[in-house]
Design a protein that fits this description.
Number of domains: 1
CATH architecture: 3-Layer(aba) Sandwich
Shape: globular
Largest sheet: 7 strands, parallel
Bound molecules: nicotinamide-adenine-dinucleotide
CATH superfamily: NAD(P)-binding Rossmann-like Domain
CATH class: Alpha Beta
Structural class: alpha/beta
Number of strands: 7
Helix content: 40-55%
CATH topology: Rossmann fold
Strand content: 15-25%
């Protein structure tokens, strides 16, 4: 797999799956823009990629804000001359089932996951059109397929991402823009460590045939593959990376 000459933007790249994806894309030769609300974390990630011989820059952005997308695309154009790859990964969770979740939390979760994917694709399209190609990977979740207990907002947002991915894939194929999403299972990141009790985690691991969490680099490898020309005929896919959870 080779991404020499490509420019990639990864959101939520300060830590977890986003950081691993940025590192993998950088290692394959792409110039990487690491975008996050957490600028310090994104800067540390960019330094690590550069330390390993890659090209990277960090910027602060909130994926819910259209102006921040403009800022990010302007930076990618100025520094690296355009954009070919977009990884929509940033997000957070507000647990709660249908009865418990507040409307405010439900809206916030839809905004940071689903609406941000739409904003990202809208923002990136002119650059893709200019380049004559593009690849988008949206990070959904296995919950999009099976529903998360007490996760009404998150499940709805992630299922929405799968639908948006397929609609966008159909629409943008004529522009040589491929749009795919990944559906990770339980992955060992700060978010999961901070959010999930041991009891819930053990229950979910018992449902996972591989009996362990993914490491972020295992999700990043699939994201990276979908960005390369090795996946040149893959579009509209919802790729499970879940250790066999709910086959
Ligand atoms: N960890 C898992 O088990 C798992 C499973 C399935 C899907 N996912 C998805 O993978 C993605 C990454 O998850 P993670 O576990 O690495 O999470 P994480 O919390 O470790 O990292 C998320 C990053 O997103 C950033 N972020 C959050 N809101 C933002 C905003 N509005 N604008 C810009 N940046 C923002 C955070 O600052 C953080 O750096 C998320 O979309 C998550 O839903 C995670």
């Amino acid at each position: 797999m080779n991404l020499q000459g490509e420019v990639a933007l990864v959101t939520g790249a300060a830590r977890g799956i986003g950081l691993a994806a940025a590192e993998k894309l950088g290692a394959l030769g792409a110039a990487v823009v690491l975008a996050d609300r957490d600028l310090e974390g994104a800067e540390a990630g960019a330094l690590a990629i550069e330390g390993a011989g890659g090209r990277a820059m960090a910027l602060r952005m909130d994926v819910r804000e259209p102006e921040d997308w403009e800022y990010a695309l302007d930076n990618a154009a100025e520094r690296y001359g355009g954009l070919h790859i977009l990884v929509n990964n940033a997000g957070f969770d507000r647990p709660g089932g249908v009865q418990k979740v507040s409307l405010k939390d439900f809206r916030e979760v839809l905004e940071v996951h689903l609406i941000a994917c739409l904003l990202g694709m809208k923002a990136a399209l002119p650059a893709f059109e200019e380049a004559g190609r593009g690849a988008v990977v949206n990070v959904a979740s296995l919950y999009a397929k099976i529903g998360g207990q007490g996760e009404a907002a998150y499940t709805a947002a992630k299922a929405g991402i799968v639908g948006l991915t397929k609609a966008a894939a159909r629409e943008l194929a004529r522009l040589q823009v491929r749009v795919n999403c990944v559906l990770p299972g339980l992955t060992d990141t700060p978010a999961i460590r901070g959010l999930m009790s041991e009891k819930v985690m053990n229950k979910l691991l018992a449902e996972t045939p591989m009996r362990r969490m993914a490491q972020p680099h295992e999700i990043a490898s699939v994201i990276a593959f979908l960005c390369t020309s090795e996946a040149s005929f893959v579009t509209g896919a919802a790729w499970e990376v879940s250790g066999g959870w709910n086959m």
